[in-house]
Specification:
alpha+beta; 3 helices; disordered C terminus; single chain; globular; seven-stranded antiparallel β-sheet
């Protein structure tokens, strides 16, 4: 299956670049200095030292930064100190849909201490969230326990975990239609 090309009106798309370990913030800063649009989601995490606790910002995706650019700007990104390569899908730099970047942004704005897990799961139920910060988002539910819902963003290959009320999730049928009996 070919990956659909998702470009904006300026011919730019979101890509993920692989960075040197612990260089995410440095790479993001360098991309910004080059005038490129980037996104490095930062997670607020509380760390304990022997004498104090401190809240720090650390990258949600270790060794990855998202960058929005045209194909002609790829060389400039690869020449950025700390950038190892683009993330590839079917031998081409993987294009990430705008909706997925926006979903991550909303998720990071609405939740603290987000947990990210690498996943290779099979799709179970296709759902639409009917309330809360991810309202109207559709995705694949990996697991539901009490109030925790794991939503898979397929092109990223990661699972974001959030606490969502069960009443805010409805199961879609095989054909994408909503069944009122499928509200969890």
């Amino acid at each position: 299956m070919n990956q659909p090309v998702m470009m904006d009106q300026f011919g730019k798309s979101w890509y993920a670049v692989h960075t040197r370990p612990r260089w995410e913030k440095k790479v993001a800063g360098q991309l910004g200095k080059k005038g490129l649009e980037y996104y490095c989601p930062l997670n607020r995490v509380q760390r304990q030292w022997s004498d104090r606790k401190k809240v720090i910002l650390e990258p949600l995706f270790t060794s990855y930064v998202f960058v929005r650019l045209s194909e002609s700007e790829h060389i400039s990104v690869l020449q950025t100190d700390g950038v190892m390569s683009f993330v590839y899908w079917l031998k081409k730099p993987a294009i990430i849909r705008d909706e997925e970047i926006e979903a991550i942004r909303r998720f990071m704005n609405d939740y603290e201490s987000v947990k990210l897990e690498k996943t290779q799961v099979n799709v179970n139920d296709r759902v639409r969230i009917i309330g809360g910060p991810l309202m109207e988002r559709e995705g694949n539910i990996v697991e539901i326990k009490h109030k925790t819902v794991r939503v898979q963003l397929p092109s990223l290959g990661y699972t974001l975990t959030a606490t969502i009320e069960k009443s805010n999730v409805e199961i879609l049928s095989l054909y994408g239609e909503i069944s009122s009996s499928n509200v969890i």
